[in-house]
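Batch manifest line 294
LIGAND: flavin mononucleotide
JOB: complex structure
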Amino acid sequence: MTWKVGNLELKTPIIIASGTWGLGDTLLQYLTPQELTYAVGALVTKGLSLEPMSGNPPPRLMETPCGLINSIGLENPGIKTFLEDYYPRLRELKIPLIFNLHGNSEEEFIRLAEILREVGEEAIELNISCPNVKKGGISFSQSPEVVFELIRGVRKVFEGFIAVKLSPVGPVMETALACESAGADALTIANTYPALGIISYEPLRIIRGGLSGPAIKPLTLRLITEVSSRIKLPIIASGGVMSGKDVFDYLLMGASAVQIGTANLIDPWSPIKIYEEIKELLRSYGRLLDKGNT
Ligand SMILES: Cc1cc2nc3c(=O)[nH]c(=O)nc-3n(C[C@H](O)[C@H](O)[C@H](O)COP(=O)(O)O)c2cc1C
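JOB STATUS: finished
ARTIFACT:
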């Protein structure tokens, strides 16, 4: 098998989603490099910022009947520490790495892309669900014009693969069109859905965060079907993948590759199991896919 997402070539259609496998060390506690290279087409790093971020105060996670609400707050050690302490071990894996980036302004995104270009990296995923401090803290994803300018700016300094990770709420179609005309290479659809959970009544403890897991798969599947009917950019699906069938459903509805997120938190071997399942499904139903993948 080879899988193409624009000019990015993957050995399998399975990508491990940002923020669900630590910074590298956690994943490597469970999976051997051989297992990873066998099943995984690419790894998306934890969201990285210019400066370290300590994230949100607790509560940070709440399980719901069909999903998970997280309010991690983009905790990360900053790109410099990541490159010094975690990157060398990940690079040895010989699996394509996609760097998930978040900036508080267009300038920060551009600087992050420049740093990665300087170390010779060739693939980034822009998390546009983060707040834009220059626009009063409103998320980039709420304004297709701002997203257009952002991608144009990043494209000027970064020739490699640029995926834009869309928020599932707001002007999704307009944002996807803006990404296409600004020169992005792919769309990741989508990030988590804004949600709220009640943890206890006395004292009242609530969590506001992003919902992920099986609950969101039908919502994201619909979003991908709609976007792929109007936009030619390759789509990387992200939302509620727990099985090979989930992967196949996304491929059938227009995705070129599929990310596994919350499933890793339940079982770090999920990517291997899901890969075995998707191989079977591709044998039986692969003829139904027409994405230029082989
Ligand atoms: C604990 C946790 C941390 C996450 N951190 C990030 C992040 O840093 N950047 C990002 O773009 N998405 C992040 N995500 C979103 C996931 O990458 C994924 O898009 C989302 O969870 C939907 O997929 P899933 O239902 O398979 O989990 C995070 C999700 C979870 C559950």
